[in-house]
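[step 3/7] fold_predict: job queued, chain A
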Amino acid sequence: HMDGASFIKAAYRRNPGLNFLIHTGSMDFQLDDELRSIGLCERDVLLKPVVDMDDFVRSITRIVSASNNVDRD
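[step 4/7] structure written:
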């Protein structure tokens, strides 16, 4: 059994180009140092329940926009 944070870490090790959002029901969830080193920050953590689905849209749009602006030489 793998929790979401462990999944993100494993997926990132396999493909560092991936971007992530965390959707958690845990009010105690904290980003650890490894998740922060991957590039996650508090705004990438959405707490359940998400009442306004536009929160997801804004977060996904921000992440996609940021990844499109990365210099890909």
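[step 5/7] annotate
The helical segments are 4-14, 33-38, 54-68.
Strands lie at 22-24, 45-47.
exit 0
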